């Protein structure tokens, strides 16, 4: 018999405790990019990414409901997941900053078929995806996507991770 899920609306741990616990969970740093209906590139930094299924190939990303790129992602039903290499901290910071033009002066290319913005110079891989499911989860959306293609970036097999509120390079010489 399954245990009942407690009603967490009455008693919850302090928000700072939850944030501290999640900061202890290392996450790969990615930039999710998409196109608006007008064809303008948009994007945001994310560590809330997971491989979901091998057959069929699916991944999931968590996106805050207030992320300005979310409508483009949901309306266009396509996005590029740019897995940043160890030298991509400046790109991550740029796409996390709401006050800058994230693509201005940044090296990027449009995917040939869809026009999706790819950050190949800053990524180990760019995964081209189609949205198959959007689930509301609290103040976020959990977006399940099918993998359409994987493009190798120029960063090699290094990784940029975020842990304990800091960036760390993995796999670098």
Describe what you observe in this structure.
It is a single chain. This protein is mainly β. The chain has one domain: Electron Transport, Fmn-binding Protein, Chain A (Pnp Oxidase, Chain A, Roll). The chain is built from three helices and twelve strands. It has helices at residues 15-23, 70-76, 89-96, and strands at residues 27-28, 30-35, 41-46, 49-53, 58-64, 78-84, 109-110, 117-118, 123-137, 140-152, 159-163, 166-170. A seven-stranded antiparallel β-sheet has the order 3-2-6-9-10-5-4, sandwiched between helices. A three-stranded antiparallel β-sheet has the order 1-11-12, with no helix packed on it. It has a two-stranded antiparallel ribbon with strand order 7-8. It is globular and about 50 Å long. The mean pLDDT is 90.
SSE blueprint and pairings:
Elements: H1 15-23, E1 27-28, E2 30-35, E3 41-46, E4 49-53, E5 58-64, H2 70-76, E6 78-84, H3 89-96, E7 109-110, E8 117-118, E9 123-137, E10 140-152, E11 159-163, E12 166-170
Antiparallel strand pairs: 1-11, 2-3, 2-6, 4-5, 5-10, 6-9, 7-8, 9-10, 11-12
Compose a concise summary of this entry:
This protein has 173 residues and is mainly beta. The chain has a single domain, classed as Pnp Oxidase, Chain A, CATH 2.30.110. The chain contains three helices and twelve strands, in the order αβββββαβαββββββ.
């Amino acid at each position: 018999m399954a245990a009942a899920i407690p009603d967490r609306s009455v008693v919850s741990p302090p928000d700072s405790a939850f944030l501290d616990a999640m900061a202890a969970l290392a996450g790969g740093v990615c930039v999710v990019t998409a196109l608006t209906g007008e064809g303008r590139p948009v994007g945001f930094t994310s560590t809330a990414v997971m491989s979901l299924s091998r057959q069929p190939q699916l991944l999931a990303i968590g996106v805050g409901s207030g992320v300005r790129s979310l409508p483009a992602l949901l309306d266009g039903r396509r996005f590029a997941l740019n897995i940043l290499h160890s030298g991509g901290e400046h790109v991550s910071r740029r796409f996390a900053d709401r006050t800058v033009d994230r693509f201005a002066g940044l090296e990027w290319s449009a995917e040939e078929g869809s026009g999706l913005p790819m950050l190949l110079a800053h990524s180990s891989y760019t995964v081209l995806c189609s949205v198959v499911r959007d689930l509301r989860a609290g103040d976020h959306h959990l977006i399940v996507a099918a993998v359409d293609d994987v493009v190798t970036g120029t960063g090699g097999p290094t990784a940029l991770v975020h842990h304990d509120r800091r960036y760390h390079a993995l796999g670098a010489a």
